[in-house]
Amino acid sequence: NYWRYSLDYRRFIPMLPRIVLAARTFTSVSRGGIIPNYNHLYFGYNERIRGHYSELYEGENIIGASTELRFIILKPRYISLDGILMPEFSVWKFGIVAALFGDAGTTWYRQNHLALNNFIKGYGAGLHFILPYGFVLRTEYAFNEQRIGQFIFDLSAAF
After folding, report:
1. What is the Cα–Cα distance from 63 to 135, expressed in whole angstroms?
2. pLDDT of 151 strictly over 70
3. Alpha carbon of 102 to those of 1, 47, 48, 68: distances in Å?
4. Cβ 44 vs Cβ 50: under 8 Å
5. Rounded to an integer, what distance in angstroms lies between the CA atom of residue 55 and that of residue 82?
6. The whole model's pTM is what?
7. Per-residue confidence (pLDDT) for residue 158, from 0 to 100
8. Contact status, residue 154 vs residue 128, Cβ threshold 8 Å
9. How many other C-beta atoms lie within 10 A of the C-beta of residue 77?
């Protein structure tokens, strides 16, 4: 017997012919009755803060933001493999993008109010390899607030 309100806003702004500013802000907040454990929200599974990539943060509510300045090294190219694969799988996309990024976010329980000093933050740089079917192979190096670095190797859907 509770409500959950969610917002996910993304913006891609071309700066120069091969430079794009990508930004995302999201939140999900709850109201009403007791939030069951299975509907808690996390940083550390689907949502992550680079620099805190393998750490787990749990709460009833979540807020986060990510900004990337993307430099297109190899514009996406399409390769058609007609006759080799089924038609729906015959067009493959490849590209390479370098990125500078910054992430921030937090989770919290309703009895603990949202506070800016609880935000975890990370920043860094990396190479993103655009692959067929909307996948991106990310190789990045990120730092947290204490300037402790970590290498990130991730295969995920495009953001």
Report:
1. 25
2. yes
3. 36, 14, 12, 7
4. no
5. 44
6. 0.86
7. 63
8. no
9. 10
